[in-house]
Design brief:
Bound molecules: zinc ion
Number of helices of chain B: 1
Strand content of chain B: 35-45%
Oligomer: heterodimer
Order of helices and strands of chain B: EHEEEEEEEE
Radius of gyration of chain A: 20 Å
Distance between the termini of chain B: 15 Å
CATH topology of the domain at 2-117 and 213-227 in chain A: Peroxisomal Thiolase, Chain A, domain 1
Radius of gyration of chain B: 16 Å
Number of strands of chain B: 9
CATH class of the domain at 2-117 and 213-227 in chain A: Alpha Beta
Strand order of the largest sheet of chain A: 3-2-4-7-1-8-11-10-9
Number of domains of chain B: 1
Shape of chain A: globular
Order of helices and strands of chain A: EHEHEHEHHHHEEEHEHEHHHHEE
Helix content of chain B: under 10%
Shape of chain B: globular
Strand content of chain A: 15-25%
Largest sheet of chain B: 6 strands, mixed
Helix content of chain A: 25-40%
Structural class of chain B: mainly beta
């Protein structure tokens, strides 16, 4: 079997406050997030020698963050990218350690996603319409929501998927966020709240779309041998697939069933390495840039049949207390927008049994499993988690971890 | 096919900027003549859109261009209420559609759907191209966009 199953692990996680007014540079936030992840793992500056980050020209590069932390690097790389980069970079971290280039890698994403470069388009310069954009932007199709909406609409047409069904994704994630002291939106919402919120681009209501926030997040990857000596129990990496793509990326709507997303291609890679199937997964982290992205990916990876995503997400399965909760932190819809990092961080916490909820002794792994508002969000006996990372319909990544 | 001179989206959007390599040029030259011209592989005769260097069917790099009937079927759509470009504030909502061209191997094109942006839309409806002329001015050459209109009674 190809791959590096159970040979690498996530040993540290860190995050800054999730806010809309950081009042700080991406440099200051990046330093805090990586430092927090190093403390979490019990690592000093001499024990981290690799660094990876991703950005959309809205961040601070690794050499600066490392220097600020007193780290001398043997490897670093700062990649362009947004969603789906987290899982891909975790895979790269395993690879560079395996290659002997370095021993322990800190991955970070730092973004003032509300006060500086907003994903939804406002506050950014309109680009000149060239190449792919020439066939879309000139018609007023340029933001992520605008680029993806026809795929979502086509799914509704072909399979009878409804706005009500999709609203359940936001409802579930808002319940999860209500048990998360860090979440930007902690208020529980109803299906009716989602349907009554204003249109952004039909079929997306405002509450079908993720929040935009300022934050930095970090993850530390090392080999299993080193992981055993660290402060936290490791989250073992069973399988990873990174930035897997459909045949056409520039024009993702060009061919094929447009509501079939890149996860269709990542699925055999990530499950093949892990040597398990969907029934073995206890918790999912399906990227929720929009309610629809969560659903389309759950379909693509086989958690339900193609076309049955609407039934799946509205069945209660994805809620805490359901058979396979999704984005138990509240995800991008409610906790914060981090381009995927917080979704992996949450699953690491689930595997440790130390979800930072409102249970008084969560630090000791003591949980009530009472999922009512202001309560617990630890999944009982979470053994295996899966992250389904989304960049766009044509590109996605995936990560399976175990405790 | 219908000729149209008023534009669907408001003035102020950037004009299409042709790439120096000319990859899309036959399309834009065609629209000036009010002809819908798309890529077609010279080896396997597969239609293709948008413009690329390789034929995704046979992997040939020998792509040609051909005129196709300016009509299609609505494949999917969206109604935009929250624009990115500030100029679009003047026209909300507006419709963006994905049109499939059965006469050209079911290639798909993005465009706007002219007419009442809040009217009911049906996937599968027959649509025809509307060639929307823009005068240009200053450094901008005149150009023509391909928009779409529902064929009445379809
Ligand atoms: Zn060909």
């Amino acid at each position: 079997m190809a791959g590096l199953k159970d040979q690498y692990a996530i040993v540290g996680i860190g995050e800054t406050e999730y806010s809309r007014d950081s009042g700080r540079t991406t440099r200051a936030m990046g330093v805090e997030a990586v430092r927090s992840a190093m403390r979490d793992a019990g690592l000093g500056p001499d024990e981290v020698d690799g660094m990876l980050s991703y950005h959309g020209n809205d961040s601070t590069a690794s050499p600066t963050i490392a220097t600020d932390l007193g780290i001398r690097l043997n490897f670093y790389m700062d990649c362009s990218g947004g969603g789906s980069s987290t899982e891909a970079l975790i895979g790269i971290a395993c690879g560079v350690i395996e290659a002997g280039m370095c021993k322990t890698v800190a991955i970070f994403r730092s973004m003032n996603g509300y006060t500086e470069a907003r994903i939804g388009g406002t506050g950014r310069q309109a680009p000149a319409f060239r190449s792919g954009a020439l066939q879309q932007g000139i018609y007023g199709m340029s933001s992520a929501a605008q680029s993806f909406a026809p795929s979502f609409m086509r799914h509704m047409y072909e399979y009878g998927t409804t706005s009500e069904q999709l609203a359940h994704v936001k409802v579930a994630h808002s319940k999860h966020a209500s048990n998360n002291p860090k979440a930007f939106y902690k208020e529980r919402v109803s299906v009716q709240d989602v349907l009554a919120s204003r249109w952004i681009v039909k079929p997306l209501h405002l509450l079908d779309c993720c929040v935009e926030t300022d934050n930095s997040t970090a993850i530390i990857v090392t080999s299993v041998e080193r992981a055993r000596d660290m402060a936290q129990s490791p989250a073992y990496i069973m399988g990873v697939a990174g930035r897997t793509s459909k045949p056409s990326v520039g024009y993702h709507w060009r061919s094929g069933p447009i509501s079939r997303v890149a996860g269709h291609y990542a699925r055999p890679i990530v499950f093949g390495t892990a040597g398990i199937g969907v029934d073995d997964i206890d918790v999912t982290g399906s990227y929720d840039a929009f309610s629809f992205t969560t659903m389309l990916q759950l379909e693509a990876y086989g958690f339900c049949a193609e076309g049955e995503g609407g039934d799946y997400v509205s069945s209660g399965i994805i809620e805490l207390g359901g058979d396979r909760p999704n984005n138990t932190s509240g995800g991008h819809l409610c906790e914060a927008y981090t381009h995927g990092m917080n979704l992996v961080i949450e699953n690491v916490r689930q595997l440790r049994g130390k979800i930072d909820d409102y249970c008084p002794n969560w630090q000791d792994g003591e949980h009530t499993y009472d999922y009512s508002e202001g309560g617990c969000r630890q999944v009982r006996d979470a053994e295996i988690t899966m992250n389904l990372g989304w960049a766009m319909p044509a590109t996605g990544s995936a990560l399976i971890m175990r405790r | 096919m219908t000729d149209e001179t008023s534009s669907y989206l408001p003035a102020g959007l950037p004009a299409p900027a042709a790439n120096v390599d000319g990859l899309e040029s036959p399309f834009w030259e065609g629209t000036r003549r009010h002809e819908l011209v798309v890529q077609r592989c010279n080896d396997c005769e597969t239609y293709q859109w948008g413009p690329e260097w390789i034929c995704h069917h046979c992997r040939s790099f020998d792509l040609g261009w051909t005129e196709v009937p300016p009509r299609g079927v609505l494949y999917s759509w969206e109604r935009v209420w929250y624009p990115v470009h500030p100029a679009l504030q003047a026209k909300l909502p507006y419709m963006v559609v994905l049109v499939e061209l059965p006469d050209a191997g079911n290639i798909r094109m993005v465009g706007n759907l002219v007419g009442d942006a809040e009217a009911e839309v049906e996937i599968g409806a027959a649509v025809e191209a509307v060639f929307e002329d823009h005068e240009g001015g200053g450094d901008v050459e005149p150009y023509t966009l391909v928009q779409w209109r529902v064929v009445e009674g379809s």
